[in-house]
Specification:
This protein has six helices and three strands; from the N terminus they run ααβββαααα. The protein has about 160 residues and is mainly α. It has one domain: Orthogonal Bundle (hpI Integrase, Chain A). It has a three-stranded antiparallel sheet with strand order 1-2-3, with no helix packed on it. The C terminus is likely disordered.
């Protein structure tokens, strides 16, 4: 799906949502103060009474975030609209739905599916054929519904 957009902002949203298992509300509420470029980490404030966590950022994510920061200029939130306001949850969800059609995946993708796909980065011991995110396009990973891999550790229990 990342390849289906020409918007760097949208590609970065998909990358972070997938890699860190973020809910739509957590993603659109990300602020620059939560990114520590020196340490290469993201401080995640979980919604729904979740436990805050610190996640490592990959080089790809750090480069994408630095570019995003250069392109958006001064702002409190990472993801802002053309009107310089934070992207809404609804706006993000509609963007994901539009891109899933453009990516021609053969099924409708919803924003929450990226959160569920996060757990597929970890190879299941009894189903080694399941892909790891490191070498597989995120669109291919999203095409394996989470419900078809119920024995994969829950994304909520993953530790980086």
């Amino acid at each position: 799906m990342i390849h289906a957009t020409s918007s760097h902002r949208d590609a970065t949203m998909i990358l972070l949502a997938f890699r860190h298992g973020l809910r739509a509300a957590e993603l659109v509420d990300l602020r620059w103060e939560q990114i520590d470029f020196q340490m290469g980490v993201l401080h995640v404030r979980r919604a729904k009474a979740g436990t805050p966590a610190t996640h490592p950022l990959t080089g790809r994510e750090l480069r994408a975030l630095r570019r995003l920061q250069r392109e958006t200029g001064p702002a409190t939130h990472l993801f802002i609209s053309q009107r310089k306001a934070p992207i809404s949850i609804d706006g993000y969800q509609k963007m994901i739905e539009r891109l899933s059609v453009r990516a021609k995946l053969g099924f409708q993708v919803h924003a929450h599916m990226l959160r569920h796909a996060c757990g597929l980065r970890h190879r299941h011991p009894h189903r080694p054929s399941l892909p790891r995110a490191g070498g597989v396009d995120s669109g291919a990973i999203v095409s394996v519904p989470f419900e078809d891999a119920p024995n994969i550790p829950s994304y909520a229990s993953l530790r980086f």
